[in-house]
Amino acid sequence: MALKCGIVGLPNVGKSTLFNALTSAKALAANYPFATKEPNIGMITVPDPRLDELSKLVNPQKILPTTIEIVDIAGLIKGASQGEGLGNQFLANIREVDAIVHVVRCFDDTNVVHVDGSVDPVRDKEIIDTELLLKDLETVEKRLDKQKKQAKSGQKEDVKKVEIIEQIKTHLETGKTARTFEVEDEALEIFNSMMLLTAKPILYVCNVDEDSVHEGNAYTNAFKEAVKEEKAEVILISAGIEADIAELDTKEERQEFLEDMGLQEPGVNRVIRSCYKLLNLITYFTAGEKEVRAWTIEVGTKAPQAAGVIHTDFEKGFIRAEVIKYDDYVSLGSEQAVKEAGKMNVEGKEYTVIDGDVMHFRFNV
Fold first, then answer.
1. Residue 219 to residues 32, 105, 139, 215, 296, Cα–Cα distance (Å)
2. Do 330 and 292 contact (CB within 8 A), yes or no?
3. Over the stretch 171-197, which tens digit does the pLDDT of each residue have?
């Protein structure tokens, strides 16, 4: 899949540290603004215990998880919409991603400078929101001018488009993001075509100190209150802890470290799963002696297109899909047992794949 999440935030909030923990990459994480100038891009493995359970039953030669792409984007500052700092570059990079992971700093540390001199995650969020809104307003106003010229012809469709763009402009001018604009069916095409920055789905990550990773702190409480109307997910993690976990070599060492910290799993696992959901993605599986593999598709994908993710020939020559529900596979213990119990379904071209389906495709090219 080409879909990707972008990590954004002010300078020095922990974006690159989080990126390194997510990807086990080594992006420069430094205590000064704009340590990241060019976007760092990495592939991250999507943790899925279902893959492990299927592998235990099948005992394949290979186990292949699915992945998504993550981008660490340069820190933004006030005035970015007018090109301040690395503003133009930042905004161009964020336009290229499909969803946003917004990291805010929720910890005190005199050794880590804050670009605005004090820790205030609500203020930090508002700075970025304002810059993105200003850029979106610029985009909308340019589109409105163009559409008004076309509407002079009197075409009913062009006049309607002007009305729609004016509604979007009014909404943004109130300080509300484009993602909170209620898009009617007739407005969907023109709304999507503007690729507004604040229309992208968002996940908030509060970067906290070790002591606050379980219950949060005054900073995270204030931040959650500030974003409650957005209905966006807020995740608490300590980027420092995640960096330490990423440095450990074995699964056993990582598990022991987590237990010592009172954690069930690395925080990055929650971030990754939330990114996956944010991108509107689900997983189906193929299971055989050679490999058990997870495949990524978008919600609502039909069986032939799901087959095409494996190989284009599978989609071109699609005949049918043999589908086993994950729970049936695990409870009955094998593909053969599922067949004997009459739990394998044969589906055609109109079948919509469901998250967790274990599939085998029949095709002829």
1. 22, 9, 33, 11, 36
2. no
3. 999 998 998 898 888 889 999 999 999
